[in-house]
Write the structure tokens for this entry.
Amino acid sequence: MAKAKTLGMMGDFAVAEAAKLCNPDVIAAYPITPQTIIVERLSEFVADGELECEYICVESEHSAMSACYGASATGARVYTATASQGLALMIEIVYITASARFPVVMTIANRALSGPINIHCDHSDAMLARDSGWIQLFAEDCQEAYDSTIQAFRIAEDKRVSLPVMNCLDGFVLSHSIEPVTTLPIEDEETLDGFLPIRDPLYKLDVDAPIAQGLLALPEFYMEIKRGQQEAHLKSLSVIKEVIQDFGDRWGRYYPVVEPYQMDDAEVAVMTIGSSTGTGKAAVDELRAEGKKVGLVKLRCYRPFPVKDIQAALKKAGAVGVCDRAVSFGSTGPVYADTAGAMVGRGGPLVKNFIIGLGGKDITIDTFRTMYDNLYADLAKGEIEEPVEWIGIRGE
Amino acid sequence: MTIQDEYRKKGWKNLPPGGIVDRPATALEYKTGTWRAFRPIRNKDKKICQNPEACLICWALCPDAAIKRVEPNELEFDMDYCKGCGVCALECPLKAIEMEQEE
Amino acid sequence: MADYPTRLADLPKEERSVSSGHRLCTGCAAGTIARLVGKAVPDKPLIWVNATCCMEVATTIYPFAAWHIPWLHNAFENTAATASGVRAGLDMLMKKGRVPERDIEVIAIGGDGGTYDIGIQAISGAIERGHDFVYICYDNEAYMNTGIQRSGATMHAAWTTTSPAGEVVLGKKEFKKPLLRIVAAHGLEYCATASVSHPLDFVRKVKRAVDVKGPAFVHVIQPCLRGWRFDTSESFQVARLAVESRFFPLYEVYHGYKYVLNYPNPALSKVPIEDYLKNQGRLRHLFRPEKNQEIINIIQEHVDLEWEKLLELAEFSEKSAIY
Amino acid sequence: MSKITEVRFHGRGGQGVVTASRLLADAAIREGKFIQAFPEFGPERAGAPIKGFTRISDKKFTIKSAIYTPDVVAVIDPTLPRLVPVTEGLKEGGIVVINTPETPEAIKSKLGITDTVAAVNATNIALETIGRPIANTAILGAIVKVTDLVKLDSLIEALLEVFKGGVGQKNVEAIKRSYEEVKVA
């Protein structure tokens, strides 16, 4: 029996508490800043008997995901966490895990990818995995990181989905920052009062009913199998919304896949992903107080990319700036690329791309003021001159 | 209809999830016997090998499990799967097996 | 001592691991290895975790899978890590009563490339963590699945497509990596070398490895007719020569410390390495156009040196009171 | 005090700067306030100058950026002002709480500032109460005294959550003494 308590918790800490609540059977993880506090807290829970699970201290992130793949194959509930270079090292197996439809919940404490090495926040690591077939959720604050961890298990293990889920929280800005987090009031800890039933696997390694997973698929069948994977991923969006609704109805906190903020009469708007959303909302409030009709759209679910929800949220704005914390070199930011794809040819707003906060570059209210000024300038000209603008760097 | 035909007919929508094959040993439907250029003949002219259970080297070493132990003490060469590699002939201590050209 | 099969007839009739219908090359002893592992533990349910390798690709071409048991492949270099996850998943599900308590053995199997080179880190980690599983390395001394490229297991002077016998450089420059000593150095309870030419010895060692509560390792030599260039019928004959020439002696190591020699019998006179090398196409350049006695001697000296080390280790182990 | 009160702690790696920023947040959350506490993220190494930040507000706030215009600056290590512009960005009417043996007036002239300065010899207090020159908890007592951020009891409660038993009591004593001994000018 657990009562709801509001405590000051670092994001990593909150995620570890949430993961514990979900009773994972196997954890296989390798430490990397800024995810370390998650794996440390989980190790303490296991050592103190608060969490009954096989905790495998693997010798590399590549082996972390490999062990998760093997464990999920037995039907066990599996959790891991990594960041930056760790995600890059295990990416081979991240793809394979999704193709096998093995549910695994993985927290990413988002951190810039090297070169140069940098331990601060940006989304280049998660974006490295955007084509991997994992569901990807991004949290705005520590409370959402906590709640989203719990939702992730429910989504991943729903038989209609049965896909691994990547829960992203911004490195340091959330992972190592204390914010108020309210824990879940739970009666039946085995199934979180029915919200998270014990995993009933889509299929598993069963000595009494052998199956084979990991075959060589020649051209004759490979594409068919991948089309099936795409279908499962696209269909997961409705289940994700179902889970969001159920969680909100039970505990009062709703995190829609796309959340418009003051968009009804917004002339210009930005779309944000992750913790920059918080500072963005604060900027909107300030500018609104100064009479400026600005808005913001928070993108929580990046994969599957909620095209219809984004179209609905953005269509009334005059000009929209998509704020990426990653860049696909030689092209634009990834979230912009997806968004532009969704908005093209619909007579909707002007859409441009802002690259902000790479490698922990602080995103402040002034950052948003600059972006909104640029959007108003483009709106006045009626066209986007500079489709991709890097905000917050020195020099022309 | 082999599992290959079955899975082809399913189209992409109804294939088992995650690229699995949902039952064991479906390769039994694939007859590797068609690979043979030579065929093993045991005890062709004389019953040299009379007590296989006392030896069974051919049975144990056959890479394709194409030699079956038959009650109570007999061997059966399964031409559905034998690839004609000649291991049994070479390894048989009594030289009771000869490889002959496939017709 | 647990009871180990003394006659091939003791082995179960039915196939319990790989089935017929797989597409390994005609005469490939890897098929035999997979069969014998299944027969080594007739009473124990198995879960098979396979590395990317010939055995994996040739036995599972979608939708044909040649396995009577649950079979899992993940990738090339992470078989031991994947097996760790399978083991952990089973253990915890049983502990929580989610699945019936059963003595299931997790078999992890890979080729030499996947074990000596790209996979050694995952193996070292899995052994260090003490998971209860058996790792089997079937060693055909090159990346055969991708067309015979040189690996850490390839012997000195052997031709492969990436260590060709050229005008200036004659085959692989380096010597075969001493895999088992590296594995033994982890101090695991049991590891051993085996050969397809000694099926009962191999079966005994697999069973011994399975009986270990914790990690165990069996390294079985499996000459490859395609890569070593010999006839489809000769895999086992070549393997036998590898053992009898002392190129690949069969021995066991207990707790990474106590060495027990099995074959060949030291009392027997040595089969010259030349007999082992001469009918392998990958070493033709040592015999034609004319014999390269110098390199043959180098190989012989290296074999003799390694053999002497093994004898000393075995002798020392016999006297040692530790195990 | 503006709607969200922003506090910046200055010290060196290993001096408990981050712990101080967290304890202040923990104290505030006990009073139902909305908080945020985070270090200046970087590969902290013992001895290197680092900062810790705390935001406290009566209303929920969502801002996630660093603090550039603090309302309160707390200097745990007296040697830092020479190296680091500790009062940079201090808001009008802001206050500097500094661990120093000197008087607030002396500090004002030394730093050449006209802002309010609260001085307390936290190192000395810590030595006498905790027995170690760790001033991070002691200085919190001074902060509580000169600002209305949190009540002393909340701070003590938060502290005893982290420092149990005898160590806890010694830290409480340190807090109380600096609460009493802080001088403002």
